[in-house]
Design brief:
Number of strands: 3
Structural class: alpha+beta
Shape: elongated
Largest sheet: 3 strands, antiparallel
Oligomer: single chain
Strand order of the largest sheet: 1-2-3
Number of helices: 4
Amino acid sequence: MTRRFSTIKHGMTLHAYATPACRYRCGVKANCTTSIERRVRRWEHEEVIEGMQARPDRMPSAMRVRRRTVEHVFGTLRFSAFAS
């Protein structure tokens, strides 16, 4: 996809991409878009968010361990503060 333009919305820079390939040679266009071409908008730092999500996706057991160890302590502290 080629970048067409950039815009600032809510203080974030968004890049707009589009491809004319849908017009001529896409067999699944009806499942993807009703427009003439496929358009995508992405935040300029979207790859950072994707990288952050990729880490737990590679090792899902790490979040289970974190919940059992770290978050349990804070939950106990909160509970003891309300119980007093």
